[in-house]
Amino acid sequence: QVRLVESGGGLVQPGGSLRLSCAASGNIFSIYAMGWYRQAPGKQRELVATLNSGNSTNYADSVKGRFTISRDNAKNTVYLQMNSLKPEDTAVYYCNADIVNTYRWRAAYWGQGTQVTVSS
Asked: How far apart are CA 11 and CA 28, in angstroms?
């Protein structure tokens, strides 16, 4: 069984910062890409940032220059540093990971989501 557990969400004022973490655990053989997505009320889930095993990153235009994705391979953890937060960043943030388990079965896994609210 593979699990992704997110943490770090909360309420922050506009212009503030938050750091999200997502730890993968369980029967993991290897992890390819890891990333963050978000879903605001009434909207579709959208990509925020991804980071592959070769350390290539991809960001949504709306967060470029404000958000930074990173990972600690030894801890199977991906982070999202969010600076200069705006009210439009308010959403549930989901972690996603492309994982091969110990049975050599590859699949995409999702975390349970963490709420980020940007408001004064």
From this structure: 33
**Band of residue 96 on the pLDDT scale cut at 50, 70, 90:** very high
Q: How far is 7 from 113, CA to CA, in rounded Å?
A: 9
What is the percent of the chain where pLDDT is above 70? 100
How would DSSP label each residue in 57-81?
EEE-TTTTTTEEEEEEGGGTEEEEE
Cα separations in angstroms, 65 against 25, 32, 49, 59, 108: 30, 24, 12, 9, 27
Under 8 Å between Cβ of 92 and 23: no
SS3 state of residue 108 = strand
Of 35, 41, 119, 109, which Cα lies nearest the Cα of 77? 35
pLDDT of residue 53: 86
